[in-house]
């Protein structure tokens, strides 16, 4: 059965998501601001949940209706036969977005949607689902634009950037999907296939090296996740999902039999390295991603190169970029040091710096051959590429 789906992505990542969805065999693919619409079987959507490195969520629309008033919203939601999607003893959550519509309060809209579902169960079954905002059995998404509602089931259930390897209370590290987008723009998968290395000299919680390891080993980013929104949905195709996971596991195992490129992350903060090593373990990247406490000016390619490895690769870094007043000036010296390290030690490599400060990037002292705009949350950032001849 062919269905319609919509995969969401952070601003600027839509072209990468489009390429991923094309490679996964979807049909009638259309990119728009904030995501990519596509058609396919349920298995196609499961593949996107399992394999997409840059998608945020995968939504499956089940109804559209006019909702100019709270009553119309309630009625539109209640007309769906919810017993086909969940049981009264299961849990529910609702995400609500409103654009140029009469219902402007998103929390009120979510509450009204939830009321319509649970009231139907109460009237028919005499019991009702409870709310679980963190890990519900069924997560609904209402997109209300100009009083027209699209009601979808969120098959991802939680942001797909949550791969399952990172503890979520480690400050504000780079989101996994953004790290993957940076690596894809840097052409890392091709360089990894050719045996080139990757070094992140300020790796923090090791998100960039881990995502690089997942790509190099052809590990599906969703393979280690234990929660998806479709797992509690009554129409979930469990045999198809188990088959897709087994295929992904087989692909990883076959790639692991071949030589892998050297991948290393350094940081001068011991606590960051300690947390990063735990993340590497959880990601199944032990022995693939090397982490070490080391200062920036001591970073060099030889530290991870084996005699057979090509003396080339990518140097990639996400330094702080002074979001608060007065920070930019203090960080200028750091950016100069990054530029000096690139010029002195990484000839023949490609250098990439991801920053939200165009002014600080000038301190690197190298001319960028490419500038790619990506968003880190609301902050407009740039990925600068430096050719190191």
Can you lay out the helices and strands and say which pair or pack?
Blueprint: E1 3-9, H1 14-23, E2 27-32, E3 35-40, H2 42-51, E4 55-66, H3 70-78, E5 91-99, H4 106-125, E6 130-131, E7 138-145, E8 148-154, H5 176-185, H6 188-193, E9 197-200, H7 207-216, H8 238-256, E10 263-267, H9 270-282, E11 289-293, E12 313-317, H10 327-345, E13 350-355, H11 358-361, E14 370-376, E15 379-387
Parallel strand pairs: 5-6, 5-7, 9-10, 9-12, 10-11, 12-13
Antiparallel strand pairs: 1-3, 1-4, 2-3, 4-8, 7-8, 13-15, 14-15
How would you sum up this structure, described in words?
- The protein is α/β, with parallel strands linked by helices and 389 residues long.
- The protein has 2 domains: 3-154, VC0802-like; 176-219 and 255-387, Rossmann fold.
- The protein is built from 11 helices and 15 strands.
- The protein has helices at residues 14-23, 42-51, 70-78, 106-125, 176-185, 188-193, 207-216, 238-256, 270-282, 327-345, 358-361, and strands at residues 3-9, 27-32, 35-40, 55-66, 91-99, 130-131, 138-145, 148-154, 197-200, 263-267, 289-293, 313-317, 350-355, 370-376, 379-387.
- It has an 8-stranded mixed sheet.
- A hairpin with a 2-residue loop joins β2 and β3 (35-40).
- α2 (42-51) packs parallel to α8 (238-256), α3 (70-78) packs across α4 and α5 (176-185) packs across α7.
- It is globular and about 70 Å long.
- The termini are far apart.
- The model has no long low-confidence stretch (mean pLDDT 94).
């Amino acid at each position: 059965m062919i269905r319609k789906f919509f995969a969401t992505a952070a601003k600027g990542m839509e072209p990468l998501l489009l390429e991923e969805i094309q490679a996964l065999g979807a049909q009638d693919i259309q990119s728009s601001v904030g995501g990519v619409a596509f058609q396919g079987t349920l298995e196609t959507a499961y593949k996107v949940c399992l394999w997409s490195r840059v998608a945020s969520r995968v939504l499956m629309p089940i109804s559209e209706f006019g909702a100019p008033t709270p009553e119309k919203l309630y009625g539109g939601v209640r007309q769906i036969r919810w017993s086909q999607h969940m049981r009264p003893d299961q849990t529910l959550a609702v995400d609500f977005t409103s654009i140029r519509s009469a219902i402007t309060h998103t929390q009120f809209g979510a509450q009204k949607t939830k009321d319509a579902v649970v009231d139907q169960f109460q009237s028919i079954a005499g019991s009702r689902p409870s709310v679980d905002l963190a890990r519900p059995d069924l997560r609904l998404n209402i997109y209300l634009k100009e009083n027209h509602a699209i009601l979808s089931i969120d098959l991802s259930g939680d942001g797909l950037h949550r791969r399952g390897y990172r503890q979520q209370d480690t400050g504000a590290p780079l989101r996994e999907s953004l790290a993957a987008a940076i690596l894809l723009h840097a052409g890392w998968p091709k360089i990894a296939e050719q045996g080139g290395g990757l070094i992140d000299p300020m790796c923090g919680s090791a998100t960039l090296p881990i995502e690089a390891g997942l790509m190099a080993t052809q590990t599906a980013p969703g393979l280690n996740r234990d929660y998806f929104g479709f797992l509690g949905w009554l129409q979930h195709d469990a045999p198809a999902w188990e088959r897709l996971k087994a295929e992904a596991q087989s692909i990883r195992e076959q790639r692991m039999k071949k030589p892998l490129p050297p991948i290393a992350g350094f940081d001068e903060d011991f606590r960051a390295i300690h947390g990063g090593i735990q993340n590497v373990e959880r990601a199944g990247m032990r022995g693939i991603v090397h982490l070490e406490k080391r200062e920036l000016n001591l970073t060099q390619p030889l530290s991870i190169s084996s005699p057979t490895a090509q003396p080339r690769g990518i140097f990639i870094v996400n330094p702080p970029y002074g979001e608060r007043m007065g920070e930019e000036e203090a960080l200028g010296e750091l950016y100069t040091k990054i530029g000096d390290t690139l010029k002195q030690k990484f000839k023949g490599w490609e250098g990439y710096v991801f920053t939200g400060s165009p002014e600080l990037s000038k301190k690197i002292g190298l001319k960028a051959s490419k500038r790619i705009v990506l968003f880190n949350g609301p902050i407009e950032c740039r990925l600068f590429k430096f050719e190191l001849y």
